[in-house]
Automatic annotation (TrEMBL), chain A:
Highest taxon of the lineage: Bacteria
Record-given protein name: Branched-chain amino acid ABC transporter
Subcellular location: Cell membrane
Keyword Transmembrane helix: yes
Main subcellular location: membrane
Source species of the chain: Mesorhizobium alhagi CCNWXJ12-2
GO terms, molecular function: branched-chain amino acid transmembrane transporter activity
Record InterPro entries: ABC_transp_permease (IPR001851), LivM-like (IPR043428)
Key words, A-Z: Cell membrane, Membrane, Transmembrane, Transmembrane helix
Origin organism lineage: Bacteria, Pseudomonadati, Pseudomonadota, Alphaproteobacteria, Hyphomicrobiales
This protein's record includes keyword Cell membrane: yes
From TrEMBL, chain B:
Membrane-traversing stretches: 12-31, 43-76, 88-107, 143-160, 190-212, 224-251, 263-282
The entry's keywords: Amino-acid transport, Cell membrane, Membrane, Transmembrane, Transmembrane helix, Transport
GO BP: amino acid transport
Main location group: membrane
InterPro entries: ABC_transp_permease, BCAA_transport_permease
Coiled coil (residue ranges): none
GO terms for cellular component: plasma membrane
Organism lineage: Bacteria, Pseudomonadati, Pseudomonadota, Alphaproteobacteria, Hyphomicrobiales
MF terms in GO: transmembrane transporter activity
Membrane topology field: Multi-pass membrane protein
Organism: Mesorhizobium alhagi CCNWXJ12-2
Pfam families xref list: BPD_transp_2
Protein name listed in UniProt: Branched-chain amino acid ABC transporter
Length: 323, 292
């Protein structure tokens, strides 16, 4: 990694550490949910931006993760065990859901996950013996690690930040591993990837399942943050919201979903003065962005930067780039 | 038995309205690979055009309906194609999906803010008397809905198969490149498709609003059902969307009465998943070539 990028990265992490200092509980809460949704959006980015499949069930996986970890911690498990269990469950459900859907190409995963999200919502609402029905689960404890109690809001923020950084580092490694390269090959040209020996179906399925388990992890973090979960928090609208984060930020870019999540979470706070018009302004913004720049904000930034710098081209491709 | 018949018939009536929305959805997909996530809102909105025509402009019902149809053709047909879909077509499906989702939210919130958040009564086109068929009491409204929807579908089918323009539209949907070489004005044909979709949504809106009342949030369930109906029936067939719509209407009604009211909404979704597993091209659909 070039020195300049390393310095930028360290500055970024320092900013994340300093961000909550001296802030009120509510601001820290917004920062926490930004980090949590970034994790969910990163998972979806793997499915969408790297493997090229649309999933509309990320909120459902967050729900499964949140309920699983909440029920386990309320039964006396420690979070450090409950969260991986939630992730594993999401991974398995992702495999089961994705396997048949990926038999057929086109946008069938989108359709199946759309139906799945609504089904999960109905189960969460109707199975009162397990999930508390529409009243939800109350009194979820925040974990403590070797005496570090995450009950104070700022402690919880640092706990979330550590998890976020670990996930981001693993993700960074993953998309640069042979698996990550195979994912990208699939998105760019599935036929060619297949002819080079990439098992399309297995790789896509894997990307979807890993993406789903990251959704589960985000849910396992969201439950102790709010300490209360109910079904509407994991409905289809929220899946669309997470999808929006990925696309608005820039799908297929590492920092895209993080940027997108920030925008989607923080924008309501800035637009609060507009009251009822907030959603309209928001929707209109997305519409305009999609019409003028379908590659998202990072794509827009690159385009503007490219205009100033001129396209940088690999030496051996120079001739082709001039065509 | 009488009860079963009654439930089935009213299911068919609602299902035929779903079918109209589903057919529009299918047509758009065929003509321009547009998955319109705002289809439910397209059905929700024209009812409010009628209400605006009646209550704000003081028009009589039928004039207001013509006004609504005209407005829908312009806004939901031509403008939707020109301003939203056309600039995004070169960038693939995903931006269109996102944009139509955003458009749906925009339409929903606009109605909520500028008209009303309350459900509005909508004038019925026929009297709400009921008639006895083999012991089942069926409302005139249901019969009229079924008749009007089927009439619209038959007329559409005739237009697509029996007229020159309709055949040109089919050619455009099947293979735009070849159609253009053969002298079809494909841009115009795609525009016709968008206009037909807007008209279908408007008719569906007129038929369904007296039953469910006109409300800003109606779009979501209608859109979801239209979506499921289109896939269950077969994404590349108009007949498929019709069958899918009717099937979902009946299954939904039967499930609500005989299975469980709580899981009513789950039954069409399970049907969707089963169909995708067993017959991914849909009940009536033809299998399409796979990419790999």
């Amino acid at each position: 990694m070039p020195l300049r990028n390393l310095i930028l990265l360290l500055l970024g992490i320092a900013a994340l550490i300093a961000a909550p200092l001296g802030q009120g509980n509510y601001v820290i809460y917004v920062l926490c949910s930004w980090l949590i949704f970034s994790i969910a959006a990163m998972g979806l980015n793997l499915t969408l931006g790297y493997a090229g499949q649309v999933s509309l069930a990320q909120a459902a996986f967050m729900g499964i993760g949140a309920y699983t970890s909440a029920l386990l911690t309320m039964a006396g498990w420690h979070w450090i065990l409950a969260a991986p269990a939630a992730m594993a469950l999401c991974f398995v459900i992702g495999l089961l859901l994705g396997y048949p859907a990926l038999r057929v190409q086109h946008h069938f995963l989108a359709f199946v996950t759309l139906a799945f999200n609504t089904l999960v919502f109905l189960v969460l609402r109707n199975e009162e013996w397990l999930t508390g029905g529409s009243l939800g689960l109350v009194g979820i404890m925040r974990p403590s690690f070797l005496g570090f109690d995450t009950m104070p809001q700022i402690h919880f923020y640092y706990f979330t930040l550590v998890v976020f950084l670990i996930v981001a580092a693993l993700f960074w490694g993953l998309v640069r591993s042979p698996w990550g390269r195979a994912f990208r090959a699939l998105r760019e040209n599935p036929i060619r990837a297949n002819s080079l020996g990439v098992d399309i179906r297995r790789m896509t399925l894997l990307a979807f399942a890993i993406g789903s388990s990251l959704g589960g992890l985000a849910g396992a973090l969201a439950a102790p943050l709010v300490q209360f979960i109910d079904p509407p928090a994991f409905s289809l609208v929220h899946s669309l919201k997470i999808l929006l984060m990925v696309v608005v930020g820039g799908s297929g870019y590492f920092f895209g979903p993080i940027l997108g999540a920030g925008l989607v979470i923080v924008m309501p706070e800035f637009l609060r003065f507009t009251e009822g018009y907030y959603l309209m302004i928001y929707a209109a913004t997305v519409l305009v962005l999609m019409i003028f720049c379908p590659t998202g904000l990072i794509g827009l930034g690159k385009r503007i930067a490219g205009r100033f710098k001129g396209q940088r081209v690999r030496a051996d491709l120079k001739q082709g780039a001039q065509l | 038995m009488a009860e079963f018949l009654q439930i089935t018939l009213s299911g068919l009536a609602t299902g035929s309205i779903y079918a109209l929305a589903a057919i529009g959805f299918t047509l758009l997909w065929q003509a321009s690979q547009t998955i319109n996530f705002a289809q439910g809102e397209f059905v929700m909105l024209p009812a409010f055009f009628v209400l605006i025509g009646m209550h704000v402009l003081g028009l009589p019902l039928f004039v207001a309906m013509l006004f609504a149809l005209l407005l829908s053709l312009i806004l939901l047909g031509a403008m939707f194609k020109k301003l939203v879909i056309e600039p995004m077509l070169p960038h693939g499906t995903l931006p269109i999906v996102m944009a139509t989702i955003a458009l749906g939210i925009l339409m929903k919130e606009s109605v909520k803010e500028f008209y009303s958040a309350e459900a509005q009564p909508f004038p019925a086109l026929v009297s709400d008397r009921t008639v006895d068929i083999f012991g089942a009491s069926v409302s005139f409204q249901d019969i009229a809905n079924l008749a009007i929807s089927l009439l619209v579908v038959v007329a559409l089918q005739f237009f697509l198969n029996g007229t020159r323009t309709g055949r040109c539209m089919q050619a455009t949907a099947q293979n735009p490149g070849v159609a253009e070489i053969l002298g079809v004005n494909i841009k115009r044909m795609v525009l016709y498709t968008f206009l037909i979709n807007a008209a279908l949504a408007t008719v569906a809106s007129f038929l369904i609003s007296p039953i469910y009342l006109a409300k800003f949030s109606n779009g979501e369930p209608i859109g979801l059902v239209a979506f499921i109906a289109a896939i269950v029936g077969g994404f590349n067939q108009i007949r498929g969307a019709l069958v899918g719509g009717l099937l979902i209407g009946v299954v939904d009604n039967l499930a609500a009465s005989y299975v469980s009211a709580q899981y009513r909404a789950a039954v069409p979704l399970l049907l969707l998943i089963v169909i995708i597993l067993v017959r991914p091209q849909g009940i009536m659909g033809k299998a399409e070539g796979r990419t790999v």
